[in-house]
From TrEMBL:
Keywords: ATP-binding, Nucleotide-binding, Transport. One of its GO terms (molecular function) is ATP hydrolysis activity. Residues 50-283 form the ABC transporter domain. InterPro entries: AAA+_ATPase, ABC_transporter-like_ATP-bd, Metal_Ion_Import_ABC, P-loop_NTPase. The keyword Nucleotide-binding applies. SMART domains: AAA. The lineage of its organism: Bacteria, Bacillati, Actinomycetota, Actinomycetes, Kitasatosporales. Residues 31-48 have a biased composition (Low complexity). PANTHER family: METAL TRANSPORT SYSTEM ATP-BINDING PROTEIN TM_0124-RELATED. Residues 278-292 have a biased composition (Basic and acidic residues). SUPFAM superfamilies: P-loop containing nucleoside triphosphate hydrolases. Residues 1-48, 278-299 are annotated as: Disordered. The keyword Glycoprotein does not apply. This is Putative metal transport ABC transporter ATP-binding protein.
Length: 299
């Protein structure tokens, strides 16, 4: 079982986890910030950032992932789709080390997960919960937590404060920096959680249903924010129920059903009747005898 990492969703990696670490890259050195390398995005030749092979995992004694293969290459924006309970959250939680794999292989930035320590390269926005609304912290404090993995326990420096400010501006929350997070609407709260992940200037951004329960205005801000991350060369894995305003950004969709991948390719189009709840989507490229793909876009 792998140790559970602390990543930019909250705390800096533990001292133990860093014991055999090689010196991490500075944000200035990371590929995500190197515009000359940006053309590699979405290329089949780009190196894999996430590689799950035959991944299996169980929760509460029940198999939830049953042999998942998922590759996300540098610069790609991949949507993980599927009906409720198909295993999407479990798959991304296994990628960030919160759910141990019982079998298969996970590599991050071409490093076996058991040896991966460079969590500052990863930004994770978990599925939204209401738990944080009771936390007596300001918006700036929550977003600043996203720098901890980069600061490595050192006091915040000008670069840290600037990154926090930039992240707050990106999600349109700069004017709320001093407000308690408990005073925010659901959509604003989600924007703060995304700003927390962005403050770490991650190369890989993983978001679990970032649009769920978010008002239209916040959705548009989040779509713009993501567009900006994609433009700077970030690699993105998104758990989504429907593509919605993010559709133009998605390079590829992976659809899960009952813990197995049933589609890996172009994002399914959800238009007209296909967008109605409960519709079983059949992808145009599916084999003739393939069962309908329940994309979970709206189910
Ligand atoms: N902590 C847990 N203990 C036991 N079973 C769990 C736990 N967390 C999730 N499950 C079960 O694992 C299965 C997959 O859950 P998961 O949250 O990964 O699905 P999902 O595709 O993300 O669903 P949703 O779209 O509803 O978020 C579900 O049947 C769920 O009930």
């Amino acid at each position: 079982m792998r140790p559970e990492p602390d990543i930019s969703a909250g705390a800096a990696p533990s001292t133990e986890a860093r014991a055999d670490d090689t010196p991490g890259k500075t944000s200035a050195e990371t590929p995500a910030q190197t515009s000359a390398e940006a053309p590699a995005r979405a290329s089949a030749e780009a190196p894999p950032v996430i590689s799950l092979r035959g991944a299996t995992a169980s929760l509460g004694g029940r198999p939830v992932l049953r042999g998942v293969d998922l590759t996300v290459r540098r610069g790609e924006v991949v949507a993980l789709l599927g009906a409720n309970g198909s295993g999407k959250s479990t798959a991304v939680r296994s990628v960030v080390g919160q759910v141990p794999l019982s079998g298969g292989e996970l590599r991050l930035f071409d490093t076996p997960s058991r040896r991966f320590r460079d969590w500052a390269r990863v930004g994770y926005v978990p599925q939204r919960t209401t738990a944080a609304s009771g936390v007596p912290a300001t918006v700036r404090e929550v977003v600043s937590a996203g720098r901890l993995a980069r600061r490595r326990l050192a006091p915040p420096r000008a670069a840290d404060r600037a990154a926090v400010r930039r992240a707050l501006e990106l999600v349109g929350m700069a004017d709320r920096a001093k407000d308690p997070v408990g005073a925010l609407s659901g959509g604003q709260h989600q924007r703060v959680l995304i700003a927390r992940a962005l403050a770490g200037e991650p190369e890989l951004l993983i978001m679990d249903e970032p649009m769920a329960g978010v008002d239209l205005a916040s959705q548009e801000i989040l779509a713009d924010t993501l567009r900006e991350q994609v433009a700077r060369g970030a690699t993105v894995l998104l758990v989504l129920h429907e593509l919605g305003p993010l559709e133009p950004l998605i390079d590829r969709a992976v659809v899960l059903r009952d813990g197995c991948v049933v589609h890996d390719g172009p994002p399914p189009k959800a238009v007209g009747q296909h967008a109605l709840p409960g519709h079983d989507h059949v992808h145009p490229h599916a084999a003739h005898d393939a069962e309908p793909i329940r994309t979970g876009l709206l189910t």
